[in-house]
Structure formats: C-alpha cells, structure tokens
Amino acid sequence: MTNPHALDITRMADGGLAVGGELDYTNATELTAAFAELRLDPGATLALDLGELGFCDSSGLSVLLAAYKRLAGLGGRLLVTAIDPNLARMLAITGLAELFTPRAQP
Fold first, then answer.
1. Per-residue pLDDT tens digits for 32-52
2. Which of 5, 7, 15, 22 could bond 55 through an S-S bridge, CB–CB 3.0 to 4.6 Å?
3. How much of the chain is in helix, strand and coil states, percent to nearest 5?
4. Residue 56, CB-side half-sphere exposure with 13 Å CA sphere
C-alpha cells in the first residue's frame, strides 16, 4: 500500500525544487529540511515548481511562506514556475496568491 501522504521533493537542474504529492502536517518538516539545505546567496532566486502538488494544508502553507520570507530577507525572490489548480485556489482563499503567482522563468 502506498503512503497517502507521500511528498516528492526533487532538486531541479537550475538548483530549484519540484514538489509533488501531498504536503501536510505529516511531512511538512521534509520540505522545511529541503529548504534549509539550500545554499541561498543574497539576491538569490529560487525556482519552485508546485505543478504536481495536489494537496497542501496550513502546515504546508507555513513552510512555503517561510521559504518566501527567507528569500525576501536575503533580497531574493521565490519564482513559482507551475502551480496545481487546487493549490492556486487555496492560495487565493488565504490571500497568499500574490506571493505564489506562477511566473515565467527569466
């Protein structure tokens, strides 16, 4: 039987992260750890592909918001390259949509 709370975190060739599966209270610490392992220089841009992230609860939103704040504190930015429609709806409802609006990579 597969884990219903599976989270897949993949390091992309550009140094960013692709996150898929379900992000919730049972595995949010995995993504927190993945972000913590990233070496982020001042002014860095981190690409984040959320196109395969089918579910995200408030714990997951907290992790994403912490990553956004970390980059902002470095004068950098979080570049979301794809977003699942369900997650986009949740971000709109919570008022966080502007922070995580998908953008084309530079």
1. 999 999 999 999 999 999 999
2. 22
3. 35, 30, 35
4. 26
